[in-house]
UniProtKB/TrEMBL annotation:
It comes from Streptomyces roseus. GO terms for molecular function: DNA binding; DNA-binding transcription factor activity. Transmembrane segments: none annotated. The keyword DNA-binding applies. The keyword DNA-binding applies. InterPro entries: ArsR-like_HTH, HTH_ArsR_DNA-bd_dom, HTH_MetalResp_TranReg, WH-like_DNA-bd_sf, WH_DNA-bd_sf. Keywords: DNA-binding, Transcription, Transcription regulation. Residues 16-95 form the HTH arsR-type domain. CDD domains: HTH_ARSR. This is ArsR family transcriptional regulator.
């Protein structure tokens, strides 16, 4: 199964699914499977895990419905399974006020683990926008991410794009005021 045959979105709705995606190791395994299927051995090599640990985490993801076996083949009498994502993207539930944003925590961990001497583009901008401008910027960022996801080639090195457009809480704004 090629990635273009996958459903567009998998919505995380159960506690089991949320626990599965909340783990950083499983997040990294899903990143390996984002563009092409891989075996437990291939996943272990790419993530830097022992095969047993890789197998354990993949089984949890499979049980939660986030990854699935897309093909098998016999190799020296052993059935080798190729796993792929169950959908092109994962939609997480809103964590609610004060709740941890799993996606942002994983993104920060991935950024911190990336090579310090590698090229990175990290920016933060504080903006004052109308609701219409806010909605337009969110749509433009999503369209740009979708455009480049379509251009992604599994033969090229991985790159991660993370963005968050949000209104900070009134308390955070008040604390940051310098008036």
């Amino acid at each position: 199964m090629a990635t273009e045959d996958l459903p567009e979105t998998f919505r995380v709705t159960t506690d089991e699914q949320l626990r599965a995606v909340s783990n950083l190791t499983r997040h990294r395994i899903m990143a390996v499977l984002r563009f092409e299927p891989a075996t437990i051995t291939q996943i272990a090599e790419r993530v830097g895990l022992a095969k047993g640990s890789s197998s354990y985490h993949v089984r949890l993801l499979e049980r939660a419905g986030l990854v699935k076996v897309v093909r098998t083949r016999k190799v020296r009498g052993v059935t080798e399974r190729y796993y792929a994502m169950a959908a092109r993207s994962i939609e997480l539930p809103d964590p609610g006020e004060g709740g941890p944003d799993v996606l942002m925590r994983h993104a920060v961990a991935d950024l911190e683990a990336s090579p310090a001497d590698g090229e990175r583009h990290v920016r933060m901008a504080h903006l004052r926008l109308t609701e219409e401008q806010f909605a337009e910027l969110g749509a433009r960022l999503q369209a740009l991410a979708d455009e480049y996801r379509e251009l992604s080639d599994p033969a090229l090195p991985d790159a991660s794009l993370v963005f968050a457009l949000f209104h900070p809480s009134a308390r955070v704004q008040a604390e940051g005021d310098t008036k």
